[in-house]
Amino acid sequence: MANAGEPIREMGLGRPPNEDVQYCSRCCMPETSEGTIFDDMGICRACQSSEQKMHIDWAERQKGLGRVLEHYKSISGNNYDCLVPISGGKDSAFQLHLLTKVYGMKPLACTFSHSWFTETGKYNLWNILEKVEADHIMFTPNRTLVNRIARNSLQVIGDSCWHCHAGVGAFPLQVAVKFQIPLVVWGESVAEAGNKASYDDQVTFDENYYREISMKADADKMITDDISRRDLYPFQFPTKEELETVGVRGIFLGDYIFWDGERQVEFLKEEYGWREDDVEGTYKGYKSVECRMSGVHDYAKYVKRGFGRTTDHASQDVRAGLLTREEAFELIRELDGKRPDELDYYLEITGYTEEEFENILKAKRTGKAKDLV
Questions:
Q1: Which of 207, 239, 255 is at the close of a domain?
Q2: Residues paired with 84 in a beta bridge
Q3: CA distance 81 to 106
Q4: Dihedral sign for Cα atoms in the order 228, 164, 296, 277
């Protein structure tokens, strides 16, 4: 007796891109995804979290958010009520709207510039800051340092973006310490679209989260002959004593409110004129639209793990009922392995050849990914 998937395969439609890899039985996430855990039914943790999300009492959780925000507003005095890390992307733009227009908070917006802004990204950042009337501070590392780090990043963590992973976490916390702002407000939950946590975990942005999930490698590992410890100061996490003195606490809005990226983008476009654009490596025009190098980051993941951002987005759409699993696999086959044009720029600033780029990433393969062709 044929199983349900066989007629689809016989027509050549909706097939997983690699027959030797296990995929989630509900969405399209492969076992080569870092941190993937399948249950007894072959369902990945991201799908499990998506199901949990449907059964959460979000009205009660939102009341909890209100209590948290009111507490920090009551103790802020003449200072800012909270700190909001912002890139100008869809999540951080929605964060600023929610905090200022719905909860009446006075936030300090904080941007660690990755130095790779697109024109659309620049517009979205300054547009939302002006329209919600938020004070803002930005730090931009010098271009030569970014280029040197981008080269070493490939060797150390297997993608091009260590300076961004580290900077977007460390610098806002440095600002929180310097400005004595205890509450730092992030966007979507860690459980929203990945395999790193569930909604039961209530993850906080602390040192463990920063080092294990965000930073991926300590700054000391980035030191080379042309990158000094002093160069890496903006990427260093504040000390435990500094954080405790201020009482810094990080929360994710997506742990308190029902997070729906698609609807939030629609709202931002209508209410604030937020803009989408073409994004390499996916069929969606909003995720990481602010960064010209997002396609290189995702292509590196494809070479290293056998899947890219289209797999991430298509899997989310399958969970949301916007795509069938078969339709999602067709998109994945079409787009995931497509070479990004911006790879030429990355190779130019780092001095790597394309062969070196791919060989470095293939050497980073672990587990089942070692069997990828």
A1: 255
A2: 109
A3: 5
A4: negative
Residue 260 placed within a domain: no
Q: Is there a domain that residue 175 lies in? A: yes
How far, CA to CA in Å, does 243 sit from each of 85, 174, 202, 206, 247? Answer: 17, 9, 20, 10, 6
d(CA 202, CA 134): 28
Task: Name the band, by pLDDT with cuts 50, 70 and 90, for residue 216.
Answer: confident
Question: pTM for the whole thing?
Answer: 0.89
Q: pLDDT at residue 12 above 90?
A: no
Report the distance separating Cα 32 and Cα 41, nearest Å. 18
- Computed over every residue of the chain, the mean pLDDT equals 89
Indicate whether 210 belongs to any domain.
yes
Task: Say how many C-beta atoms besides its own lie within 10 A of residue 180's C-beta.
Answer: 14
Distance (Å, rounded) from C-alpha 296 to C-alpha 20?
25
- Together in a domain, 247 and 359: no
Cβ(200)–Cβ(255) under 8 Å?
A: no
- Same domain flag for 46 and 69: no
Q: Extract the tokens encoding 251.
A: 């929360």
Question: Residue 249: what are its φ and ψ, rounded to 5°?
Answer: -135, 135
All residues at 6 or more sequence positions from 239 whose CB lies less than 8 Å from its CB, including other chains = none
Chain segment 170-209, per-residue pLDDT in tens: 999 999 999 999 999 999 887 776 666 777 766 666 667 7
Structural domain harbouring 141: 58-255
For the segment 240-269, the average pLDDT, to the nearest whole number, is 93
Count of domains observed in the chain:
2
Q: Are 83 and 184 in contact (CB under 8 A)?
A: yes
pLDDT score of 205: 67
Query: Is pLDDT above 60 for 34?
Result: yes
Chain centre distance of CA 210: 13
Q: Is there a single domain that holds both residue 169 and residue 34?
A: no
- Largest separation between any pair of C-alpha atoms in the chain: 72
Tokens of 329: 């696999």
